[in-house]
Amino acid sequence: MGSSVMRRVSVRSLSSHKLRLVLTVFSVVLGTSFVAAALIFTSTVSQAFNSIFDSAARGVAVEVTAAESDAPGVPVELVDELRNKKDELGIDRLVENVGGPVTVADSSGKPIQTGGAPSVASAYLPPDRAIGDSANTIVDGRAPAHADEILINNDAAEKAGLHVGSTTTVVLGTGVSDPLQVTVVGLTDMPTSTGGFVGIAFDEETANQYFSDGEYVSVVDMSAKPGVSDTQLRDAVHAALGDAKTVDDLYKVRTGDQVREDQKAQVGEFLTIIQAVFLAFAAIGLLVGTFIIYNTFSMIVAQRNKELALLRAIGASRKDVSRSVLLEASIVGVIGGLVGLGLGIGIAAALLAFTESQGLPSNGIQIGATAVIAALLVGVVVTMLSAWIPARRASRIPPVEAMRASTVEPGAGSLRKRTLAAAIVGVLGVLALVVGGLGEGTGPALIVGLGALLAVIAVVLGAPALSQPIVGGFGAVFAKPFGTVGRLARTNAVRNPRRSAATAFALTLGLMLVVVIGTIGTSFKGTVNDAVDKGVTADFIMSSTNNGPLPIGIADTVREKVPDAGVVISQAVATAKLDDKPFWMTAALGGSLNDVAVIKTEQGSLDVPGDGLAVDESTARDQGFELGDKVSLTALTGDVVPVTITGIYEDSEVIGPRIVGADAYRKLVPVETMRQAVPIWVKGKPGTDVDELRSQIEDVTKQYLVVQIQDREEFKNSVSSTVDQMLVTLYALLALSLAIAVLGIVNTLALSVVERKKEIGMLRAVGMARSQVRRSIYLESTYIAVFGALLGVVLGLAIAIPLVRTLAYWGLDAVVIPWTLIGGTLVGAAVVGVIAALWPAVTAARTRPLEAIVES
């Protein structure tokens, strides 16, 4: 039979079943929309950042900075050497600058919210000395000339309600300065000012006073003499700084182009993570949709037995029939891809609107060819793969089937081989989960991941065999109140186990992920709560409202000005290198951590001397440390600081893995980069009223703008709130896959009603009321939904429990199972079953007995 005839048959089949077409298309739409949204969103943000970075470091031929962000910078003596060799090296102009993080108050006295963008200060350089972006173009006012004057970028000033003549507060993130009261004397236009970025500038003398000890500068920019290329100047400067390896360890010597590319690469890494998350959820949606599409086409083939057999009888070959089904699938895929692309554009636009409100830049939505092609390709490929087995089945329908009235789906016979394969894969999966769960760290976690994959495959293969005893079991219990209708629903739910399992799997996968994520989240919250309850004796924990470090002067202020403060201890971060690898520690400044926390010491003491280092058991084991060992730490300046292991303590989430002595801390961390880490611990004097103590702390710290003061319960709640916000975001994304699952149940039941039209008509003819027909469909749907939910819960717990145990290496102490969430998901599954059955049930109830019985 001609291919054109078969194409017309396929198109007419789709056009004559428009509702079936819509339901099938929606199985593809949500997955493809996530793919399109991920590509469009990341492409748009990436292009916006690239356009900004293209204007960064303009006019700069070579830039020299410290190799590490926490390092103090470039030594002044090296800068002087470069300046003395300007002509020899080919340097035209050399500019040095200092700066650091700041918090600036708006017109109402509250900190300007940056949405995650930097808030930094630098030194003002006049145009005749500046290079490229170091020249701040003043659009209003004048340059700062005194210590209490600043410039601020125009965008930030407008957002904060500041103008020339405004007074405001500036809190330095480094050094030991108290909050500064300053006057805005000028507004600047910065090419790189975007989103929530806040940039202020002091005069040079003041900036050096606040951000340098006179020995280091933050950035050194150079322009090249005519005839000297950027690369030539970079190589010459690199050689002039000293030994190549030492230079690379301490400094970054880059051309202006390299600076811009490195900035783009940093944003690219961030966007890659976002894109990966989106694509992961797209994959989940597509996987769920695959089962629904497979189910749909299987039922379509079953319902078209007579039509396809007649086509065979009048000359259509097996290939013609299979190609006809695959053609239908390709049309569904193209439509699904196009609709998914449109929805993806909408999702990306909504995300961009949100990120713009939070300070991220955007130059308008960018819809590239990649997103369009990906959406269409994914839609077509997924649909074609899903329909391949039903297409093969359709091609095997013999012409004699045209003489039969039955539309029972082929292939619903023995499940023996499939169940045996499921048992083998399941045993391997359980073994991997158990073995992985016995260990800690990345390796065991990967073994658990393998076990999870095998377990999912086992469920896919074994679900049809499980559906009969499980659905039959709880179906028998729940059927009793409904009598004959309940028994009929139970029979319908298990009559085709393959179909029931494929329909339920959509819910299984979604709820499995909900349980896994929920268990990790509640286990993390449980670990934090337990650590605070058992390990913290401080009355208050001080931290920053913007999750950054607190200014170093705050602890001293509380210690000196709060009369009821008995113990004030701050933990300050120190970064060094050990065997050329990053090695971070905290220093307990102001006392011993034993005064504010309960820590079990295994060896030595936690009263760390100035040149000592106390480590937890995990660090001691990993590094091979023993009590009394001498350890050489390399500061980011290159200086070697020797310390002695003076204590080994039980792993603690409260104080961290390594505590260094105060003297060693000051050698490792220069004054210009010192920042208080969070938290600062405060414990009142004996007999102190804690409410009065809080009031005193608030009075002396409100000038610092970013300080939040929490008692133990508030601290636990803030951590729980942060975790809950993350979980809600993940659940919202997973809800889309559950929406596909609901559509799958609707689709299956709707097609099932068509398939069983004559059967329903006969039941109506012998006295079954419309309400009983509807009830039987509701129950059937509920049984399938609850079956899928039960499998999802069991599978989720089987994966989550060993996975959390492997995460003990990163601090999770115990598995906390979210029973409330699990109970809610099971109840929710029953509700989903009823909601999904509403339309198919109404359709079934409207079946006219005589028309259904006589229909051929």
TrEMBL record:
Question: What is its subcellular localisation?
Answer: Cell membrane
Q: Where is the ABC3 transporter permease C-terminal domain?
A: 280-399, 732-847
Predominant place of localization? membrane
Query: What parts of the sequence cross the membrane?
Result: 21-41, 270-294, 325-353, 365-389, 420-439, 504-524, 730-754, 783-804, 816-839
> What membrane topology was assigned to this protein in its record?
Multi-pass membrane protein
Q: Which superkingdom heads the taxonomic lineage of this protein's source?
A: Bacteria
The protein's UniProt keywords, in alphabetical order, are:
Cell membrane, Membrane, Transmembrane, Transmembrane helix
InterPro entries per UniProt: ABC3_permease_C, MacB_PCD, Macrolide_Exporter_MacB
* Domain MacB-like periplasmic core span(s) in chain numbering: 22-239, 500-699
Pfam short name (any one): FtsX
The family line of this record is: Belongs to the ABC-4 integral membrane protein family.
- Under what name is this protein listed? ABC transporter permease
Instruction: Write down the species.
Output: Gordonia liuliyuniae
